[in-house]
């Protein structure tokens, strides 16, 4: 490897009936993980060392990619190999055309290595390649080892403890076929005679206290592999039922950056990078309302109202991580509703041909993701997801709703009217 900062791309061609695929990485010492934290995938998107991150999916036409970022300079000395794997979700790799893995230099964008997977049949997981240490340097090796037991089989093979929900056996009750026999009455025994209590024993000095013992170390929690994909047929899910009741939840928007788009920019004219802004309207339980967005530097706050924070402003779509909102689920009771939406700030006149995916990643619980439908209207604002507090639980509703602002009406005011938020708006700038 000529450089330490690398981008690992798992790619394939999508079509109706083609299963989804997910990239993952396992950091190994002596052939096994040291703990479950050495497994980086959609439910554990970052290694504690910062050496490996799962960045998420992107779609461009029929091509789909799932991205891992790797910084070999931050890999701990005990790690000897980083296994790069793929798992199929909803089918086998025999149904996934054009599967490949490609390693590029993050800085220059130059391709360092590529492996096109040979024809697969019944495999549901693959080790496609690995980074390994050799004489003080990092090298890449293509592998192509398949598993028919899916991500769970691959993970457990390298020492991961997997926790998947088990179906409880049906409970049955015994029904008597005949009437029960009458109860047996025991003979009454007279009470013993009352006697005077014995004299108290002599007072003895207290026994020395045993030294306190250290509490046992906490039992590591097994890894959960389940995830949720929202569709038109199944558009909503309860966060509580998925285990997402506390901690931070990251909302990620990722889109395909397109250079020199045809057409004119909605706000500035011309052509260039597409700048999308991830935003959130919020209404708190005490009636306060507001917006979190880059426009006007309204980035919010995680530990005080509104308990929502915009991590930054990706002005070009060039970063692998896209744009991210973080929601503090420890304050679920303080939320009434949250509407996550996206606007085009500049670089395009509509969402047509902009392929975007949305992922909600709770700190605890399964990730929730969905793709935006193809836009067929001149829309510059899209409602992504509506989170509503229902009895202390946040219900996530997939919206994927493209709106067309009227002439002279801002995207923010347009989405406010569509969802009856009732706020006053004034022009702002970045």
In terms of topology, how is this protein built?
Layout: E1 5-13, E2 20-28, E3 39-40, E4 52-60, E5 63-71, E6 81-89, E7 100-105, E8 111-116, E9 125-134, E10 137-147, H1 150-157, E11 228-229, E12 236-238, E13 248-255, E14 275-284, E15 289-292, E16 300-301, E17 308-310, E18 323-328, E19 335-346, E20 356-362, E21 368-371, E22 381-390, E23 393-403, H2 411-418
Parallel strand pairs: 11-21
Antiparallel strand pairs: 1-5, 1-7, 2-3, 2-6, 4-5, 6-9, 7-8, 9-10, 12-23, 13-18, 13-20, 14-15, 14-19, 16-17, 17-18, 19-22, 20-21, 22-23
| Uncertain ranges | 165-188, 257-271, 315-320
What is the SS-derived class? Answer: mainly beta
The protein's oligomeric status is single chain
- The amount of helix comes to under 10%
Q: How would you portray this structure in words?
A:
With 430 residues, the protein is mainly beta. The protein has 2 domains: 5-157, Lipoxygenase-1 (Sandwich); 228-418, Lipoxygenase-1, CATH 2.60.60. The protein has 2 helices and 23 strands. The strands form 4 sheets. The chain has a 7-stranded mixed β-sheet with strand order 11-21-20-13-18-17-16, with no helix packed on it. It is globular, with a radius of gyration of 29 Å. Residues 165-188, 257-271 and 315-320 have low confidence and may be disordered.
């Amino acid at each position: 490897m000529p450089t330490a900062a690398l981008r690992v791309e798992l790619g394939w061609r999508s079509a109706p009936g083609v299963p989804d695929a997910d990239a993952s990485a396992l950091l190994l010492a002596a052939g096994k993980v040291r703990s479950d934290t050495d497994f980086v995938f959609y439910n554990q998107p970052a290694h504690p060392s910062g050496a490996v991150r799962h960045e998420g999916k992107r779609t461009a036409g029929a091509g789909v990619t799932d991205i891992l970022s790797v910084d070999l300079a931050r890999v701990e000395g005990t790690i000897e190999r980083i296994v790069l794997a793929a798992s199929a979700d909803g089918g086998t790799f025999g149904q996934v055309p054009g599967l490949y893995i490609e390693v590029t230099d993050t800085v220059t964008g130059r391709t360092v290595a590529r492996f096109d997977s040979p024809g697969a049949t019944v495999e549901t997981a693959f080790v496609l390649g690995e980074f390994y240490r050799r004489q003080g340097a990092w090298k890449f090796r293509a592998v192509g080892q398949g598993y028919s037991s899916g991500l769970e089989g691959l993970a457990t093979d390298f020492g991961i403890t997997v926790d998947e929900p088990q179906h409880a056996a049906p409970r049955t009750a015994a029904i008597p076929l005949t009437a029960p026999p009458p109860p047996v009455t025991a003979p009454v025994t007279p009470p013993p005679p009352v006697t005077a209590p014995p004299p108290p024993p002599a007072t003895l000095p207290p026994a020395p206290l045993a030294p306190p013992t250290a509490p046992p170390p906490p039992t590591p929690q097994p890894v959960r592999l389940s995830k949720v994909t929202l569709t038109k047929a199944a558009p909503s899910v309860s966060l509580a039922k998925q285990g997402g009741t506390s901690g931070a939840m990251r909302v990620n928007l990722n889109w395909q950056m397109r250079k020199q788009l045809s057409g004119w920019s909605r706000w500035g004219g011309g052509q260039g990078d597409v700048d999308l802004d991830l935003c959130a309207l919020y209404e708190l339980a005490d009636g306060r309302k507001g917006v979190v967005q880059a426009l006007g530097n309204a980035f919010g706050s995680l530990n005080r109202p509104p308990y929502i924070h915009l991590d930054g402003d990706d002005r070009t779509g060039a970063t692998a991580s896209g744009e991210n909102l973080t929601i503090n689920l420890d304050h679920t009771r303080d939320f009434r509703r949250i509407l996550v939406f996206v606007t085009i700030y500049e670089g395009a006149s509509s969402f047509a041909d902009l392929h975007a995916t949305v992922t909600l990643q709770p700190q605890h619980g399964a990730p929730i993701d969905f793709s935006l439908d193809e836009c067929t209207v001149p829309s510059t604002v899209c409602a992504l997801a509506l989170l509503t507090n229902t009895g202390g639980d946040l219900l996530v509703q997939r919206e994927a709703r493209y709106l067309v602002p009227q002439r002279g009406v801002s995207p923010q005011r347009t989405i406010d009217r569509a969802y009856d938020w009732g706020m006053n708006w004034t022009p702002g700038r970045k």
